[in-house]
Design goal:
Structural class: alpha/beta
Mean pLDDT: 93
Low-confidence stretches: none
Helix content: 40-55%
CATH topology of the largest domain: pyruvate-formate lyase- activating enzyme
Number of strands: 15
Number of helices: 18
């Protein structure tokens, strides 16, 4: 019997940021390139479309089932899937970010008959399917060079777009940073090493997908899922290539705070990026205290980053800043001061109010033997303050989260259509919640 692979994404407890499963789509592209039949199944997409995923998987008749795990909130559904698919006779394989960074935790969570694949999986998964390798845990030791990355198969792209999703892309892997709280630098070689796709190839892919989106009646809105897109020059090169191809699209991406802060002639260059389609940037500021940042292996100049964020805003580019307010060295006076500074710069939110340092397996701040994300301890007075803030902010967070999830897409659509009413209304609602979060947090402190 020829191999047939079912690639399956379980449901997460929180599916607010619902997008296409780019990792599975890339694996499907590699399997297809090697002549192996495969199909992608997405529990959340099927739920929204009224399709029974398990019935569809059974009808497909796979010889192998590959399940991706990105976070702990997907574990419960993955465990249910394993039970319900145990009678199919298919070989069971699990991979994804959680398996890669918290392997010991996954070994404890899932039965021994399940093969765990660390890394991208693009070279080892075909070998598992062909029966060329077998072990409880396998590391994809020789991932493909960026120019050879598989073209993702997107058979249900229009379904995601019809439900408000955007087109996901990957232009790089790894990160140029070395933050001690992050698991990426601690990944087994070569996964901590940065790799970049050639920008002309990225632009060519965007051109094809933009034409497909418009043919289906959708706007070409893209989201890069990279941990670190690269330099400002690389983003400028993407805009130039899109212009060369005659592609008008809108996109969001992640840049390092140090990269943005170091950029020269920011007002002119950021305006050029906005004109080229960049509508939203995520960056990690993480903290305002230079000593704390040095302890975390993140030697930023916070005032310079704040100035760069302001220049982004002046250019019409949304800036979403990652921040860690609560950590072992924090004090109550420092908490109050940082809340005020963040709010004055338009960066405080319910999410920032609840942002606590998490110790992830594989990160250098994480104690040995920890198998799952662990909240970092706080000084006693700050722990009590955390409890007060958490209780008071949670209702605001529940209102803020679905609105914030819509903001990047709203910014991109406003850029492409010239109609900014939805973006303005959404921004106003979020600002009101951010103002409330600041007032509530300061009262609790």
């Amino acid at each position: 019997m020829s191999a047939r692979v079912a690639l399956l994404r379980p449901r997460a407890r929180d599916a607010l940021e619902f997008q296409e499963p780019l990792g599975l789509e890339s694996l499907a592209g590699q399997l297809a390139r090697e002549g192996i039949a495969c199909e992608i199944f997405d529990r959340e997409l099927d739920r929204r479309l009224g399709r029974d995923t398990l019935d569809a998987v059974r009808a497909y008749g796979p010889t192998h089932v590959g399940i991706t795990l990105m976070c702990l909130s997907e574990v419960a559904d993955a465990q249910r899937l394993l039970v319900k698919l145990s009678d199919t006779g298919a070989e069971l394989i699990m991979g994804g970010l959680l398996v890669t960074t918290a392997t010991a935790r996954c070994e404890a969570l899932f039965p021994r008959r399940v093969t765990l694949v660390r890394g991208e999986g693009e070279t080892v998964l075909p070998r598992v399917v062909r029966g060329e390798t077998r072990a409880r845990v396998l590391l994809d030791e020789a991932p493909l060079a960026p120019g050879d990355w598989p073209q993702p198969l997107r058979p249900r792209l229009e379904s995601y777009l019809s439900l408000g999703g955007v087109i996901c892309l990957r232009a790089s892997r790894g990160c140029a940073g070395a933050c001690l709280f992050c698991a990426t630098p601690g990944l087994p070689p070569p996964y901590g090493i940065r790799a970049e796709r050639p920008i002309p190839a990225v632009a060519d892919e965007m051109a094809l997908l933009a034409r497909r989106a418009r043919a289906g009646g959708f706007l070409p809105v893209f989201q890069f899922v990279d941990d670190d897109f690269g330099t400002v020059e690389r983003a400028e090169a993407l805009c130039a290539n899109l212009n060369r191809l005659g592609v008008r699209a809108a996109f969001s991406l992640e840049l390092r705070g140090a990269t943005l802060a170091a950029a020269t002639d920011q007002a002119t260059r950021f305006a050029g990026l906005k004109a080229g389609g960049l509508c939203r940037v995520f960056l990690g500021l993480e903290n305002l205290d230079p000593a704390t940042l040095r302890r975390w292996g993140k030697p930023l100049d916070p005032p310079a980053v704040l100035r760069a964020v302001a220049r982004l805003g002046e250019a019409g580019i949304l800036a979403h800043v990652g921040y860690i307010l609560w950590h072992p060295e924090i004090t109550l006076p420092a908490l109050r001061e940082q809340v005020r500074v963040l709010h004055a710069n338009g960066l405080f939110s319910p999410k920032a109010a609840l942002s606590r340092l998490m110790l992830y397996p594989g990160s250098r701040l994480c104690p040995a033997g920890v198998t799952g994300p662990l909240p970092a301890p706080l000084p006693r007075a700050c722990e009590a303050a955390w409890e007060r803030v958490s209780a008071a902010i949670t209702p605001l967070m529940e209102a803020w989260t679905p609105l914030a999830a819509r903001l990047p897409d709203a910014a991109c659509r406003a850029h492409l259509t010239g109609e900014g009413a939805d973006l303005a209304a959404l921004s106003g609602q979020l600002q009101a919640l951010n103002n409330q979060a600041c007032e509530v947090t300061l009262r609790c402190l």
